[in-house]
Each structure stands twice: as structure tokens, then as C-alpha cells.
């Protein structure tokens, strides 16, 4: 991967992350409160809808930049030779690249997500107060609570979203006989994001419960099957798919903004 392409992916990814996180923050707050253990209204309802936004603002640029740099570098490496260079192996290349990108991005994403979600579920506290309380009670490890569940949510999500996005772009491009415009790539991103969001909602519910649980509780230990079973037992299928509509809306519109902005900025820089 050339230096110019590396810089383009870094800047375009960061800009895309900032755009989507700050634009759609209220929907993310509603989704978090719908999934929280105490219930929507006790977690704040529609009050303080921008609670936790400083955490999202700080983490969104480096998080998205890390993902796209890893994604493009891995795609470039896997596509230069060997079995994965063949056109029919493209979905496997995209799956591997997206999975690795998510693991790297989660090193930045999880601490900001922990602070953001705890602030969203406790709107009377500021981001700074939540950060200090987390460090005081749990140390740095507390910032990475839910790392495993986040990775286990993001990888299946990316395994669906990115190969579907790349496939839709290729199909549309082939049908019209030229490279897609940025808005067309964004439409493909919106559809792929909505499908991936719905499929992975139960994993997102588990991740939210683990991040919001009291330190030392069974839920806080991060055992995903146990958390999902508890949700199933107490709230059934509805509980497992709690927040699926705002999540699908958020990720569909987010996919449009995120992947559209990424394509536009990257092409401009190249």
C-alpha cells in the first residue's frame, strides 16, 4: 500500500467516523437506554439526549481511522498474490480485512464506548465524572469492560456488512458500466448496514448489559451466553432485539454517511 493511499484511508476514515457519530448521537442514546437493565425511562428517557457526546467526539476519529487503515492495508496485502487474489475469493478477503480492522479499532473504541454508554444511562453525571468513577472503582481494566463482547459483536457485523457492501458496489457498477458515484456507494452502505445491524442486535444487547452492569456482578464478568440467556428468560425475544429499530436506523443512515463520506474524501485525496 502506497503512502498516499495510507494517508487517504487514514483521513477519510477519521472524517467519516466523526460525521456519523456526531450526527446520529441522539439515536445511539435512545438505543442504549432501551437496552439498559433499568429500562428506558429510568435510564433517562428522552432527557439529556447528548449525554456522553464528548467521549464519542474524542474517540470517533482515531477509531474509524484505525479501522479503515487496517481494512485497506489487509485488502491490499491479501490481494497481491496467492489464493485470495482470485476474484471469487474477494468476499473472504473483505471478511478477513474487516475482522482485523474491527479488532484494531476496538482498542480505541471500547474505552470511549464504556464512558459514553455509562453517561447515556446516567444523564445526571458528566463524561468526566463517569471517567473518574470508572478509573477509581475498576482501574484501566474497567475501561475495557466488554472488550470481548464488543469484538464478538463487531466481527459478525463486519462479516455481513463489508462483503455485502463490496458486492453491491461491484454489482451496481457492472450494471451501469462505470465506477459508482460516492452517493451510490453510500446507498449500498446503508442497505448493508441495516441488514448487518438487525442480525447482530442480540450481541449488541449483551454488550450494552455487560458495559452498564455493576462491577463485580455476574453480568459484569462478560459471559455472553449467560447474559443472553438472562435477557431471554426475563424479556424473551423482544428483549434480545431491544433497540433493533433505532439500531437499524442509526446504522443504516450511519452506513450511508460513513461509507459515503469515506468514499468521497478518499477519492478527493487520491
From TrEMBL:
Gene Ontology BP, a term: transmembrane transport
Gene Ontology CC entries for this record: mitochondrial inner membrane
Ranges occupied by Solcar repeats: 4-77, 89-171, 180-268
Name of one Pfam family that matches: Mito_carr
Similarity comment: family membership: Belongs to the mitochondrial carrier (TC 2.A.29) family.
Name of the protein: Mitochondrial S-adenosylmethionine carrier protein
InterPro entries, per database record: MCP (IPR002067), MCP_dom_sf (IPR023395), MCP_transmembrane (IPR018108)
Function: Mitochondrial S-adenosyl-L-methionine/S-adenosyl-L-homocysteine antiporter. Mediates the exchange of cytosolic S-adenosyl-L-methionine, the predominant methyl-group donor for macromolecule methylation processes, for mitochondrial S-adenosylhomocysteine(SAH), a by-product of methylation reactions.
Record keyword Repeat present: yes
Record localization: Mitochondrion inner membrane
UniProt entry keywords in alphabetical sequence: Membrane, Mitochondrion, Mitochondrion inner membrane, Repeat, Transmembrane, Transmembrane helix, Transport
Catalytically driven reaction(s): S-adenosyl-L-homocysteine(out) + S-adenosyl-L-methionine(in) = S-adenosyl-L-homocysteine(in) + S-adenosyl-L-methionine(out)
Main location: mitochondrion
Membrane spanning stretches: 6-27, 180-199, 240-262
Record membrane topology: Multi-pass membrane protein
Amino acid at each position: 500500500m502506497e503512502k498516499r493511499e495510507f494517508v487517504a484511508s487514514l483521513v477519510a476514515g477519521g472524517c467519516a467516523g466523526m460525521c456519523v457519530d456526531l450526527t446520529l448521537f441522539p439515536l445511539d442514546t435512545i438505543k442504549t437506554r432501551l437496552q439498559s437493565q433499568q429500562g428506558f425511562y429510568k435510564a433517562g428517557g428522552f432527557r439529556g439526549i447528548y449525554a456522553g457526546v464528548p467521549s464519542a467526539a474524542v474517540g470517533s476519529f482515531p477509531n474509524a481511522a484505525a479501522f479503515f487503515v487496517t481494512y485497506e492495508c489487509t485488502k491490499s496485502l491479501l490481494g497481491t498474490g496467492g489464493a485470495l487474489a482470485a476474484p471469487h475469493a474477494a468476499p473472504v478477503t473483505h471478511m478477513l480485512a474487516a475482522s482485523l480492522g474491527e479488532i484494531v479499532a476496538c482498542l480505541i473504541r471500547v474505552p470511549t464506548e464504556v464512558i459514553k454508554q455509562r453517561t447515556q444511562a446516567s444523564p445526571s453525571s458528566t463524561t468526566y465524572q463517569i471517567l473518574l468513577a470508572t478509573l477509581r472503582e475498576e482501574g484501566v481494566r474497567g475501561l475495557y469492560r466488554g472488550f470481548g463482547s464488543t469484538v464478538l459483536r463487531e466481527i459478525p457485523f463486519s462479516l455481513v456488512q463489508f462483503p455485502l457492501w463490496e458486492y453491491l458496489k461491484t454489482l451496481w457498477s457492472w450494471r451501469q458500466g462505470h465506477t459508482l458515484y460516492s452517493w451510490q456507494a453510500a446507498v449500498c452502505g446503508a442497505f448493508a448496514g441495516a441488514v448487518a445491524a438487525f442480525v447482530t442486535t442480540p450481541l449488541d444487547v449483551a454488550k450494552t448489559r455487560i458495559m452498564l452492569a455493576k462491577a463485580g456482578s455476574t453480568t459484569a464478568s462478560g459471559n455472553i451466553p449467560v447474559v443472553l440467556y438472562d435477557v431471554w428468560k426475563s424479556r424473551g425475544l423482544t428483549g434480545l432485539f431491544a433497540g433493533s429499530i433505532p439500531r437499524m436506523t442509526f446504522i443504516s443512515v450511519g452506513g450511508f454517511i460513513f461509507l459515503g463520506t469515506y468514499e468521497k474524501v478518499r477519492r478527493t485525496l487520491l
